[in-house]
Design a protein that fits this description.
Order of helices and strands: HEEHE
Bound molecules: zinc ion
Radius of gyration: 10 Å
Number of helices: 2
Strand order of the largest sheet: 2-1-3
CATH class: Mainly Beta
CATH architecture: Roll
Distance between the termini: 23 Å
Strand content: 15-25%
Number of domains: 1
Number of strands: 3
Largest sheet: 3 strands, antiparallel
Shape: globular
CATH topology: Ribosomal Protein L24e, Chain: T
């Protein structure tokens, strides 16, 4: 059930553009779900006020 989550972080595709990327940051969306954001979409995530996950 959580396979897509694991794939998200180990495989490395951006939540927004679906591009494969090695350089990505983890954010929490407005529902508190962890998402991966590539360098191209970080600005978008910041604008949406997604919280940075540590
Ligand atoms: Zn992206």
């Amino acid at each position: 059930m959580l396979d897509w989550l694991r794939k998200l972080f180990s495989g490395g595709t951006c939540t927004f553009c679906k591009r494969k990327t090695n350089e990505k940051r983890r954010y929490l969306n407005d529902k508190g779900k962890p998402i991966a954001v590539c360098t191209y979409c970080i600005e978008y995530a910041e604008r949406r006020a997604y919280r940075r996950k540590r």
